[in-house]
Amino acid sequence: MIDLNEWAYRCASNILSITNKAKCGHIGSSLSCVSVLVDIFFNRKNKDDVFILSKGHAASALYSILNLKGLITDDQLSSFYQESTFLSAHPPCNGPFNDIRFGTGSLGHGLSLAVGIALAKKLLRRTEKVFCLLSDGDCQEGSTWEALMFAGARKLDNLFVYMDNNSIQGFGRTKDILPLDNLSEHLKLLGFDSVICSDGNNLKCLDTAFNKLQNDFLGPKCIIAKTVKGYGVSFMEDTVDWHYLPMNNEQYLTALNDIKKLREAK
Question: What is the CA radius of gyration of the chain?
Fold first, then answer.
């Protein structure tokens, strides 16, 4: 049986492979949330549950996870960012994949969609869960805070929000643009059961954080995952540049070697 760290390695390897072939960016953004996606898709999400990637610029990570789950074929994955592909730079609006419910990418939209679905399931007395992954940039959008307030007020205990808190956004460090201090406290005031995962790139830490959530809490839940942008790749980690830059072939080989070393260390 493949363990979760191996799935995380395979996901990161897929991300590097398809972004190198496409010569595109958003690599650091995708690598930062690999462990979060592995935890959701291999530990939490049931077949009929819903997942929404609000940070749509990390589409290569989502596609890689869906490939590992057998929901996107190898041929489809290799078409990422290519002409006439369904796997565009951001999740497609009207693609053929049931597990990609909405096109996302303009930040601040994903949580509102997730909250709407969670509310609908409540009204229909359905038991499925709704998962949503946000970024630092998402958390600076007014629509995100409106959705958080609504979810708490309506006590949507079927909603699970994950924040990929890597402290970097498109044009710099979050603390220098619009600080996101005391997120957990703010969320609790809005009616969330909120837990901080101090190492969101560590699957054991994510599991511990999830287990700290109160099963009987009558409201939405949130895990704030403190992650590292470009996690696992020496020249990408914790840098703004790798929000955008593509790799050259030498960098690609170095990146592959770095994540192999990380797998061996774990």
Answer: 17
Residue that has been written with the tokens 């969670």 in this structure? 118
Alpha carbons 262 and 252: distance in angstroms, whole number: 15
Question: Per the confidence metrics, is the pTM higher than 0.90?
Answer: yes
The residue assigned the tokens 């990390």 is 58
Helices (H), the chain: 4-22, 27-32, 34-39, 59-68, 74-78, 110-123, 142-153, 174-177, 183-189, 203-212, 249-265
Give domain 33-227's CATH superfamily: Thiamin diphosphate (ThDP)-binding fold, Pyr/PP domains (3.40.50.970)
What gap in Å lies between CA 116 and CA 132, rounded to an integer?
A: 12
Distance (Å, rounded) from C-alpha 127 to C-alpha 110? 21
Q: What is the pLDDT of residues 230-253, one digit of tens each?
A: 999 999 999 999 999 999 999 999
Task: Return left, alpha or beta for 175; rule: phi > 0 is left, psi -120 to 50 is alpha, else beta.
Answer: alpha
Distance CA 15, CA 39 (A): 17
Among positive and negative, which fits the CA dihedral 98, 225, 243, 114? positive
- Strands 172-173 and 168-169, by their bridges, are antiparallel
Averaged pLDDT score across all residues of the chain: 95
Q: Which of 118, 127, 131 is nearest to 213 (CA)?
A: 131
Token reading at 258 = 């770095």
Rounded Cα gap, residues 144 and 44, in angstroms:
23
Tokens at residue 135, please? 């970024």
| Structural tokens at position 154 | 């309506």
Q: So where are the chain's domains?
A: 33-227
